[in-house]
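Reviewers of the previous submission asked for a worked example of the structure-prediction workflow described in the proposal, so we include one complete record here. The input consisted solely of the amino acid sequence. No template or homolog information was supplied to the procedure at any stage.
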Amino acid sequence: MKKQNWLVCVPACGVALSLSACVAPTYNYAPKATAISRPAVGSVTTASVGDEMVNQGVVYEREALLLHKDANIGLFNAYTLRHGYFVKQGENKNSDFYQPSPTPDGGRVDKAALADPYKSVQAYKTDSRLCVVTVFNASACTKASFDRVVKSVATDDSFQQTLIYSGKVGQKIKLGYREFSANVARPAYSNDVDYDLSESTTVGYKGARLEVIEATNDHVTYRLISNFNGSH
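From that input alone, the workflow returned the following structure tokens.
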């Protein structure tokens, strides 16, 4: 039995069945690399056991769309956009184009069995129309509740270093050092270190130095002297 498509866009965008338009998505957007360094050098901070004390690295921030609730699109609900984040891939004069964010809070595009595969999610700049664009550049739209936001998304170029407070036993505190690449921990670059505060209240690791003001098995209060790159 020959398959019948739910949505069809004929060549040259001539006549489309139950579609609002024929659209060619664009791929001209590049995420912005952002350097992070927390907390500020010289600041006094309190961290609980398991919290990050020092964090430095590079993350990528992308423009994104946050869909607040599921949205059905197309004839007989051919597509369902699941709520969550969709990250920007491109834009033209009238619209922005998105893909589901590859994060746990990312949205999703579900399609009916006979519907054509989707290629992109389209959001108009001047109103609340949200559309699904198929592999045939056909689109179907609906009104939806969403916000345009900025979201940090790990990429292969993302890299972070962090120190984590792991508690105190006697006069010794324990810090955990972790490195993350593309939001994945690098086990070979993880370490746990003990510091004896009776010898010195200034501790350091890989260029990060801090002065411990108060430490218990529940929390630590400290002043950051320098971050991992040694900047003051």
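The chain has a mean pLDDT of 86. We consider this example representative of the routine output the project will generate in years two and three.
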